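Blinded run. Sample ID left blank on purpose so nobody reads anything into the name before looking at the predicted structure. Input follows.
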Amino acid sequence: DEVLAEAIAGARVVYLGAPLDEFSRARTAAEIAEARRDIGALDGDVVVGTITRLHDSKGNEYLVEAARQVLGRRPAARFFLAGEGPLRPSLEAQAREAGLGDRFVFLGFVRDVARLLSAFDIDVFPSLWEGTPLTVFEALGAGKAIVATDADGLVDVLADGNDALIVPKRDPAALADRIVRLIDDPAERARLSSAARATAARYDIGAFVRKMERLYEQIGRASCRERVYHPV
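Blinded prediction complete.
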């Protein structure tokens, strides 16, 4: 269909964004230490976290299994899952059955996301499918070292080996391996953090608003050009 083909050819993708001034704000060592204490992280813990909805699409059952594997190799890791949803009881049961104890903590709903992110050493996205989650823009803005799956909405934004480490969906062993890699390599975490901040600059909420304004201006001009007037 020619009309459909023309519509597809003229399509534009405008990504959402995050308020980077909030998420990229430099935080003092004291602020970070306080945020870590508030969630129960101890001195010497490597904090691995995710902020998510507890729904099927988010793949959190694979994160729980990955955590079991990581803790068998690197017991100084401590996992924090923030968010609510219908799968919370089953995920808590899975963590109990895996014997994760206080090394896998369910935080529930968290209001100050930027503050929580500041406590993370590694941010994990174990998703099975996504649109484009705002949380990935927030993690980039906060300069987090990211491990993510190859879910479409994530790889639209993240690039493996550049600003994130990407693993296949539904592969807890691969997820665990990349987390262990970052636990063992603070320099790689720092490199990913720097690259994340550079990527985040493309996804500021102000840039999103300006792109939308330009898009509507273009649509308006095109509409004016194509409008046909019929005299009465």
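Unblinding after everyone has recorded impressions. The two ends are 33 Å apart (CA to CA).
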